[in-house]
Each structure stands twice: as structure tokens, then as C-alpha cells.
Design brief:
321 residues; binds zinc ion; seven-stranded mixed sheet; 10 helices; 33% helix; three-stranded antiparallel sheet; alpha+beta
Length: 321
């Protein structure tokens, strides 16, 4: 800019000064004054601009900066591993046609337990395990994301096809695999003629999409009050490929040599739960499943201690997302 306006030969101001001789003698002083005023204005503006730029760069006006150097790296944020996994799970189920339904973390005891077929005497209701709210005997911090099933069934008519991600709370002492606050993703599908094979196909599609195309699922009989029959779902170890891959299963740190990883709880929605939520179990059937996001983080990304996910150490969190 300085060269363009104030350069000795080609500068615009210099050229104007050279042309002063074209003026009649009577007009020369006024023309000279005008050009000199312009010169002073441009000099002051350039000085001010340099000052501003130095201020932006945090240096002084005289500090030399080499603008041909590559820029210094700016810190860029990224998703926390928990949020990242949750969104990936959401994306897979959105592609399968599910909707995302989010429920409150303070939940009615009725929705958290009773309507889900968890009876009065069930140990899960014990004050040892559940956070009850003082002064609100009928309210708890939800112990799982399953009460969202109840809310959704009460408000909608089948077909229902939702996943419900979010926080859940239990009175666990923090250790490597427990935290009083943790994250789950719940899934629910209710429609005419839904069978166990639909559950298997859905979970297979999900696990292969999330963990890898070669994953094999194993269903073991399980028990949950709100599903019947219920099944625990294991996936074949994606690290040692259950002994088929390069690593010998016995040496595998992910599955500890068993070849299988416990990943999900699932089952057919208990007819009593459907009935509790105003859906006729003679007409409709459905399946439900749930998984813990922290557990997925630990398995898939080898996070050795769940507490690391909450300590917000950027050296750990910066490796993911
Ligand atoms: Zn393994």
C-alpha cells in the first residue's frame, strides 16, 4: 500500500506532485496544499493500520512477522468420547428408521419401576441402589433409560420405533467399571407381529455397523423384569476375532481370552409392560434393548478405567472424537 501511494516514482501521490507544474502559478499553492494534505492522510492511515495489525498479533508495531510461515496450530475442540459414541449409535438407528426420544432424568418411581414390571419388593428399589428425591417420595433419579419406553408408549400408538439415549444414576461407589452417573441407549420397537427374529436381525445390523462387518452375535438367556423372554447379547471379539485373527484368543486383552464380549441386554417387551402402558398385548408385540455407552467406550477404544472418562484430562480425551 505504501509503495502504491507513496512510492518515489510510481506512487500515486508522487505522480500528483510531479503534475503540479501543469497548474497556473496562481493555483499552484492551493493544489500543492491539497496533495500534501492527501499525503499526510495516507501516511497517518498506514501507520494506524500497522498499529492495529501489531495489536491483533499481540506484538509491537515494530515486531517483524514472517507471513510466509505456515500458521501456528489453533486448538480445535472435539466431541467427548461419550457424546461421540452416542451420536454414532444414534446415526445407525436413524438409518434404520428409528426416532430419538429423550426423557427426563428425574423420573416418577411409577415409570422407573412399577410400570416396567419391577415389583415393590425388588432389590433395585432399595435405597442402597436408587437416588430418591428428598420431599418427593414418588420421584427418583432414573436408574436406567427404560422409563422413556413407558412415557413413549403412553403418549403414542403403535407402530413405535425409538431409541432413547441419556444419563442414568445409581448409588454405586465409583471404581474402574462403576459410576453413580452413566449413559445408556435404550431401544424399543412395538408393532403387530414382532418376533424375536426381528430383535436378532436389528441387533445384528447395529453391531456389524458399529463394531465391524464380521461380528457374530451370541444370545444367552437372561432375566429382566420388563422383557420376556430376555437375552444377554455378546459379540465376537473384534480384536482377536474370537481366535480367528492374528492375535491368539488367549493373549487378547479385550476379551481376556474368552473370544466374546458382553455388550447388550435385550428381550421381547413383557406383555404386562405393554398392558401397563395402554397397549393391547393380544394385538401388539415388541422388543427392547439397552446398552451402556461407557462400556462400549471401554471395549471399543480400550479405555481401562471408566473414571478416566469423567476426569476431563485432555491428554486422554484428545485421543478420541
Ligand atoms: Zn479377543
Amino acid at each position: 500500500m505504501r509503495e502504491r501511494y507513496l512510492g518515489r516514482k510510481k506512487g500515486a501521490v508522487s505522480q500528483l506532485l510531479a503534475r503540479l507544474k501543469e497548474f497556473a502559478p496562481a493555483d499552484k499553492p492551493r493544489a500543492g496544499q491539497a496533495v500534501n494534505g492527501l499525503k499526510a492522510f495516507i501516511e497517518a492511515s498506514l501507520a494506524a493500520a500497522l498499529e492495529r495489525r501489531a495489536g491483533d498479533a499481540g506484538g509491537s508495531a515494530s515486531a517483524w512477522r514472517d507471513h510466509s510461515l505456515p500458521p501456528s496450530e489453533l486448538p480445535v475442540g472435539r466431541l467427548h468420547l461419550i457424546a461421540d459414541i452416542q451420536r454414532r449409535i444414534e446415526d445407525i438407528f436413524l438409518q434404520l428408521g428409528y426416532e430419538i426420544a429423550v426423557g427426563p432424568e428425574i423420573e416418577l418411581e411409577d415409570y422407573n419401576f412399577t410400570k416396567l414390571n419391577i415389583p415393590e419388593h425388588h432389590p433395585a428399589r432399595d435405597e442402597q441402589d436408587t437416588f430418591f428425591l428428598e420431599g418427593h417420595d414418588d420421584r427418583v433419579l432414573r436408574t436406567h433409560t427404560s422409563p422413556m419406553q413407558v412415557r413413549y408408549m403412553l403418549e403414542h400408538k403403535p407402530p413405535l420405533k425409538i431409541i432413547s439415549p441419556g444419563k442414568a444414576f445409581r448409588k454405586d461407589d465409583p471404581d474402574a467399571t462403576h459410576s453413580p452417573c452413566f449413559h445408556q441407549v435404550e431401544g424399543l420397537l412395538v408393532e403387530r407381529g414382532i418376533r424375536f427374529s426381528h430383535l436378532k436381525g436389528t441387533l445384528e445390523a447395529f453391531c456389524r455397523s458399529f463394531f465391524g462387518p464380521d461380528i457374530v452375535l451370541r444370545f444367552r438367556p437372561g432375566y429382566f423384569p420388563f422383557t420376556e423372554p430376555s437375552a444377554e447379547v455378546d459379540i465376537s471379539c473384534f480384536m482377536c476375532r474370537s481366535g480367528q485373527g492374528a492375535i491368539q484368543a488367549g493373549d487378547c486383552r479385550v476379551c481376556k481370552g474368552s473370544g466374546w464380549l458382553e455388550i447388550l441386554g435385550s428381550g421381547m417387551v413383557h406383555p404386562r409392560v405393554l398392558g401397563n402402558c395402554g397397549i393391547d398385548p393380544e394385538v401388539y408385540s415388541g422388543f427392547a434393548f439397552g446398552l451402556g455407552i461407557e462400556r462400549v467406550a471401554m471395549i471399543k477404544y480400550g479405555v481401562p478405567d471408566l473414571r478416566l472418562l469423567y476426569e476431563n484430562d485432555l491428554r486422554l480425551l484428545g485421543q478420541f472424537g
